[in-house]
Amino acid sequence: MAPLAPRTGDAIFANVERVNAELFTLTYGAIVRQLLTDLEEVEEVNKELDQMGYNIGVRLIDEFLAKSNVSRCVDFKETANVIAKVGFKMFLGVTASVTNWDAEGTTCSLVLEDNPLVDFVELPDTCQGLHYCNILSGVIRGALEMVSMKTEVAWVRDMLHGDDAYELQVKLVKQVPEEYPYKEDD
Amino acid sequence: MQFFGGSSVAEIAPSPAAPPGTATGLAGNNANMLYIFNRSGVCLLYREWHRPLHTLDPQQDQKLMFGLLFSLRSFTAKMDPTSVDKGNLGVPLLPGQGCSFYSFRTNTYKLSFMECPSGIKIILVTHPKTGDMREPLRYIYNIYVEYVIKNPLYVHGSPIKCELFNTNLDQYVKTLV
Questions:
Q1: pLDDT > 60? residue B30
Q2: Could you identify which of A13, A94, A167, B56 might form a hypothetical disulfide with B60, taking C-beta atoms 3.0 to 4.6 angstroms apart as the criterion?
Q3: From chain B, which residues contact A within 8 Å (Cβ)?
Q4: Is-contact A116 A21, C-beta < 8 A?
Q5: What is this model's ipTM?
C-alpha cells in the first residue's frame, strides 16, 4: 500500500525542488549580517536565530513527514538516525553522523563534516561568540516538539571557532503525549 | 451531556449506497465531508460536498468527531492482540504510536482516517463502497503541505482560509472513486 520509508534521503533529495546552493548560502549570510546590524549583541542574534529556526521547524516537520513517508520512530535512537540520514539530506543535501550516545540513550551528537550554510564564511573578531548556524538548532528543536519530544539542542563544536567539524548535541528532555484537549463537558 | 439536538434523530432513514458518480453534491463529487484536525483538537478545515442531514451545530460536530477518533485510537491500540506493550487504558498515546486505525464503515457511509506523527488528523467521509483510502489521504496530506504549510500568510494552528488549497482539494476529491 504505502511505499516503504526510504532509509536514506537520497531518493527524496532527488525528487524535491532544489535551489542553487550558493544562493542559499549567500541569502543565509545576508540574514545573519542584517541581524547583527539590527540587534548588535551577539547573544541576541543567537537567540533570534534559534527562534527563527524554531518557527521553521514547526512547519518543516509536516513537509518532512509528507515527503519522506517515515512512520513513527520507535525510540530516540531511531529519531536521531532519521534526522541525520533522511532529514539533513533532504533539506541541506548533506548527511550527518550520529555519535556519542549516553547510557540512557537520551543524548547524542550529530556531527556534520560539510555544512552548506558556512561556505565562504569567516567570523570577525567582534563576533566570536556568534553561533552562525544556530538556525539549525532551532529547526531541530521545533520539528521535534511537533512530534511530541521536548529537546534541548546546543552546539558543541563549530568550525568557525576553529574546531574540526560541526557538532550539535541533542538532548531529549521528555516525551509529551497528547492530552484530550476539551476540558469542559457540556 | 446532549449529543443530538432536536428531533432530527428520528428522521435518519437508512438509504442504499449512492453508486459512484451520482452524488448530488458538486457535480460528480463522491466524497461527503472532510475534516482536518491538528494535535490540540483545533479543526483546521471542514469541507462539505454532500451532506443532506445535519444533526449537530458545527462546533459540537467537530468536537464529537475529534473525541471519537481520539478514543477510538486509544481503544484500538489497547485491544491490539499483536502488540507487546501493555499500557493501561486511559494513558495518553503519542500520535502514531500503537496500531493505526484506518477506517470504519456503516451501511450509509465510510469514514477513513489518517494520522501523522505531527498530530495532523485527516478524516474523509465517503459512500460505503469506497476502497482503501490510505493513498488518497496521503495525497491530501501532501496538498496540505504544499498549499498551507508553505503559505507564509498562514498562522500555524489556526483554521485554514486558503482559496488555492480549497480549489486543489476539491479538484483532487472529484477524481476519487
A1: yes
A2: B56
A3: 1, 39-41, 63, 66-67, 70, 91-97, 116-120, 132, 134-135, 138, 141-142, 144-145, 149-150, 156
A4: yes
A5: 0.80
